[in-house]
Specification:
Elements (H helix, E strand, L loop, with lengths): L2 H15 L8 H10 L4 H25 L3 H7 L5 H9 L13 H10 L4 H23 L1
Helix pairs in contact: 1-2, 1-3, 2-7, 3-6, 3-7, 5-6
Protein name: Membrane protein YqaA with SNARE-associated domain
Keywords: Membrane, Transmembrane, Transmembrane helix
Pfam families: VTT_dom
Length: about 140
C-alpha cells in the first residue's frame, strides 16, 4: 500500500473507530508509522481529525435522540455516562478515546446539548493525546 492509500485507510479507520461501530484504529496508526516513519505528523493529525469527527458524529446522534427512553436504549442501559457528563461537563470528553465509555460520553454530551465547540475541543485534545502517546512509544 502506498503512502496516500495508507493515510486514507488510517483516516477511515480512525473515523469509524470513534463511531458507535466497533473497531480500533491504533493498529492502523502503528502500521502506517512503521511503514512510513516520515509521515509521523501527517498520520497523527489525520488520525486525530478522523477520530474527532467520528466522536462528533456520536455527539450528533445524541443531539438527535428525542427522549430519555430512547437515550437509555442507545446507551445500552447504562446511564452512568450521562451522569458523568452532567457532573463534569465537557471536560469529561477528554476520555472520549476510552474503550466502552468514550462513544457513550459523546452521545450523552450531545443529548445534554453541551456546547458543541467545547465538546469538539475536548474530544480532539483527548484523541490527539492518545494517538501522540502511541506514536511516541513506537519511535
Amino acid at each position: 500500500m502506498d503512502e496516500q492509500s495508507s493515510l486514507l485507510a488510517l483516516f477511515t479507520s480512525s473515523f469509524l473507530a470513534a463511531t458507535l461501530l466497533p473497531g480500533g484504529s491504533e493498529a492502523v496508526l502503528v502500521g502506517v508509522l512503521l511503514a512510513y516513519p516520515d509521515l509521523h505528523w501527517q498520520a497523527l493529525i489525520l488520525a486525530t481529525i478522523g477520530n474527532t469527527l467520528g466522536g462528533m458524529s456520536s455527539y450528533l446522534i445524541g443531539r438527535l435522540l428525542p427522549d430519555e427512553k430512547t437515550l437509555h436504549k442507545k446507551l445500552g442501559g447504562s446511564m452512568r455516562s450521562l451522569e458523568w457528563v452532567r457532573q463534569h461537563g465537557t471536560p469529561i470528553l477528554l476520555l472520549s478515546w476510552a474503550p466502552l465509555i468514550g462513544d457513550v460520553l459523546c452521545v450523552a454530551a450531545g443529548w445534554l446539548r453541551a456546547n458543541w465547540l467545547w465538546a469538539l475541543l475536548f474530544i480532539a485534545v483527548g484523541k490527539f493525546a492518545r494517538y501522540w502517546i502511541i506514536a511516541t512509544a513506537i519511535n
